[in-house]
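Dear support,

I submitted the protein below through the web form. The confirmation email said the job was done, but the results page showed an empty box. After a refresh the structure appeared. I'm attaching both so you can tell me whether what I see now is the final result or a partial one.
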Amino acid sequence: MWECPQLFEIDGVHVLVTSVWEDDVLHYVAYGVGSYSDGVFTARTWKQLTYGPGYYAPSFFRDKEGKPALIFWIRGVISQDGKWASALSVPHTLTLEDDTLIATPHQDLEAYAVSVHQAGNDPGSSDALLAGGADYTWISGEPTAIEFTAGEKTVATIRHAGNSLILNVPDNAAFRDVHIPLPDGNRIRAIIDQGLLEVSTHSGLVAVPLPFLEGPACTRPLSWRVTIRWYQTTHRQVLNRVEQ
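What the results page shows now:
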């Protein structure tokens, strides 16, 4: 079954984005690229946009400049006191490249980021405390990895192996070894903010709910070149400014 279908146009090409549901199990977000005429959408290709059970129910909009964009519901996020659940993703700008839908975190997020560090030849020297939101970019290839820890505990890891990007959250069975197909030489962006880890690549997206920690978390890039930027405000506060 399809849920929350969104039909829109990018540069004269029609795209249908929908959530995939089967036997009471919510799977992922898929999309078709094709044409729409006389009330009928005809797809020439079908592909997968998200991986893992985090992202669901995409909602299409155009930003203040008219650019096509999506925002997602993120499942599995629960406050420490149990009074609220779920979250909205950062907004993503959409482009098409050879019938591949590419979702990129919205450019307006850049206004709130400050470059503070770039990992060099000693990955161990680049440990940093996460007081708030942070943004990481690197190029896929072996060996590359980022590890998020709280004290001695590993909260999550992102690593590249073979032709896949692999995310692992040890304490969450739904997010153990989530694979995104990704060859070497592709840009990876990981944003951590308000108990969420959102990863974007040319091949697709994944959102991972993280535990709310009483103390600060630590991030350790385990690769040769990872660019890190801190955010002056949280992405959840930026959402309204992007959409207005």
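Response: this is the final, complete result; the empty box was a page-load delay. The longest strand covers residues 25-37.
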